[in-house]
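Sample intake — D-amino-acid transaminase
Collected from: Hibiscus syriacus
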Amino acid sequence: MITWFIEGTVVFDTAVILDGYLYELDAHLDRFLRSASKARITSPFPRSTLRSILLQLTVASRCKEGTLRYWLSAGPGNFLLSPSGCPTSAFYAVVIDDVVSQHNDGVKVITSTIPMKSPLFATMKNVNYLPNVLSVMEAEDKGAFASIWVDEEGFIAEGPNVNVAFITNDKELILPSFDKILSGCTAKRLLELAPKLVEQGRLKSVKTADLTVEEAKHSAEMMYIGSTLPILPIIAWDEQPIGDGKVGDLTMALSDLLWRDMVAGPNTQRLRVPYIN
Ligand SMILES: Cc1ncc(COP(=O)(O)O)c(C=O)c1O
């Protein structure tokens, strides 16, 4: 376990358990292994074995609603930086009972003054979350729920453990592109589902793009996106209302789309947990 604390040579990921199904386990597992590869951690098991361990753990937990969280570390070793003293990598997982529900109320956010991670570290889900923790603490100090990171070029990035999305006054859904931030499994799924609202004439288009703070602050609606939310409406940013300062209809329509996918979506997204009675 020592490497955990000394070097932080650890990547991690999460998947939601809802109604006895694991949601988007494969997308999370793929990202987990991409993170491991960037962190140069070799898994002690092939992907199929990791998946099977995670499923068996969920069965054993009997948990029907909560989160499955897992880590891959360079493994037990010494107090030195080089993982060459760690003979084998180690895989850990836990299941946490928790309430997973839709969010109907909006929250306030602030622009973070804590520097965001460079793209190499932001795109790899590793346990060095101190900047994320400090940015949440800063938001709480200012009476807000959480924060928004803006990159050095002035474009919107992401939140501390969530992606962010905007609906323009022209009814375009825009998400910041994923090249410098974490590729959110929920945000990616939203990009697949949201065109349904375009077909219905409720949204004009769905895209990823670079968005300036000025453009973003003048959007009609704004939201956080993440596995356990799946969408959290944002009604004010740096004490300035977003749109009319109320939870947006399109935000809630997107929340409904994701929620239906979580509770009744196709079996490509939902894996039934074979609990033993
Ligand atoms: C920094 C960061 N951005 C975005 C996300 C949202 O990703 P997901 O939708 O896969 O939960 C997370 C959560 O994993 C995160 O930690």
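Post-analysis note: The CA atoms of residues 102 and 256 lie 8 Å apart.
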